[in-house]
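User: Batch of two.

Assistant: Item 1 of 2:
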Amino acid sequence: MRIGLDYDDLIVDYARALLKYYNDRYPKRRKQLKHLEAYNLQTILDFSTREQYLSFLSDFERSRERKKIKAIKGANQGVLDLHSKSHELFLITDSGIELYDRINERLRLRFPNCFSKIFFTRLYLESYTPKDEICERENIELMCDDNPEVIYKCAARNIKGLIFSRPWNINFDPISQDLTQRVDSWEEIVNHSWLS
């Protein structure tokens, strides 16, 4: 099966790294993972303008926390297991294109020859290509992501989606059990009935 995998908050623990950086930088506005109840971080992190928020994200992308980001529990073995079961894997990420070398190096070291292609959506740029469009163009049959909007848009294109449980998608409502389902761990992804 051709499988699309998100990078941030599916393979690496982006939210925890971001919060560590945020809490160190703004100690009077401390946040915990449980506070991230929606996908709109600008509002949750108390940035009054989009420019302030994007500047913060830009600084984070160059930070030590981002460079030393840790894997989600089970992700490293999960990717290897999917590849060993002869699934064709595609990384589809909203991470900034400036991180291409760093992400590519991480994938090469941890998952040699596991990914057929890496796609950067170019989020926040005029040349943005949504993940569902990439999935359709590349004939991807299953997308795994933490963003409900991605899963819903893939389902609208008849592409199956597994939503990886995170605090901001707790209210995700599968529109069709045949197309969208929730998973709580990498073990559940690897052993999901759609991948048999």
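Item 2 of 2:
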Amino acid sequence: MGKRGISPVVATVLILVILFVLVSIVAVFSVPFVRESLSGSEDCLEILGSTKFDDSKYNCNIEGEINPGESAKRTGFSVKVDGEKVAALRVAFFSGGASDIVGLEPGEPGGVLSPRVRMLGYDFCDEGCTAGAFEIPSKGEVRTYVAEGLFDKIEVSAVLSNGKVCDVSDQIEINQCIDTEVAKKILEH
């Protein structure tokens, strides 16, 4: 019995057809996924590098007494914003191997503030309390914040007015406060 196979030309054409079908199936599912993932990314590209830590003497941490017999651990940091579309900040705090992410949004006087972060010169408040205004730097401005806890590294990301959270735009290593006046201001309130 003579067995006959298919010709090399037909085999090549069949392989190409199968390959085309497979590529089409992958494209049907991956193109919308990639398009959805990239939507809004151009906004972040416009403000790339516009949210950063300012070179400030307040970028330090301190553990000290706030009242007789009562101590506190606090970390100060200053953020500068050079982009107009930045509506809020997302800050990641690192201590040892642990991390914590806090969203910082502007608040009107009487608005709900973060219990873990305050502006320099303002009070911390309990969960859900209301207090003075909480400000995010406008274009070209710097704001200094104080976080509850001792942290050795902080990262900052911009949050746009459309809600898009951009990638980390800057990070800073935090050391212990050396200036006693700065330490006193970070510990007060």
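The helical segments are 8-38, 41-46, 180-187.
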